[in-house]
Design brief:
The chain is of the alpha+beta class and about 150 residues long. The chain has five helices and five strands. The chain is about 35% helix and about 10% strand. The strands form two sheets. Strands 4-3-5 form a three-stranded antiparallel beta sheet. A hairpin with a 2-residue loop joins strand 1 and strand 2. Helix 3 packs across helix 4.
């Protein structure tokens, strides 16, 4: 099955280094090999990322279970104070108000580590029963590392 380049976010660096020893198992390389001919400019991994046979930008080419949205979880929160505190903590964790709302609505996916952090946050505020994200999918996760 061919890699779907439409899954790649426009901010995510791809790799075109065919001589990289990690290329055969790297998601960045697979994405780079799938760039359509209509794309003329895209962020990329530079040679300086490689040292001693490894790459600082390497991402294993495997699907993970991502989550979309946590509106249903927030609907379970009864205390107004908890809602404000949790939203503040989530905004700090995710980096901005905009990212908070994109993740809450499901526009932006959440990787396994982010899901775990969010579940722990709800638990710290006393919400432990029936916590499920709005939906799940098994797909590539383009984590914003580089």
């Amino acid at each position: 099955m061919a890699f779907d380049f439409n899954l790649v976010p426009d901010w995510w660096a791809v790799c075109l280094h065919t001589d990289c020893p990690q290329a055969d198992s790297c998601l960045r390389f697979e994405a780079g090999q799938s760039v359509p001919s209509t794309v003329t400019v895209w962020p990329g991994v530079v040679h300086g990322a490689r040292h001693d046979g490894t790459c600082a930008c390497y991402v294993k080419n495997e699907k993970v279970r991502v989550a979309r949205g946590f509106n249903n979880m927030f609907a379970r929160v009864k205390s107004r104070d908890d809602i404000y505190a949790m939203r503040r903590e989530l905004t700090d964790y995710l980096g901005s108000v905009g990212t908070f709302y994109r993740c809450k609505s499901g526009e932006r996916t959440l990787g396994p580590e982010q899901q775990q952090w969010i579940l722990q946050l709800f638990g710290r505020h006393g919400y432990t029963e029936g916590l499920e994200f709005d939906e799940y999918a098994d797909t590539y996760y383009f984590e914003p590392k580089h």
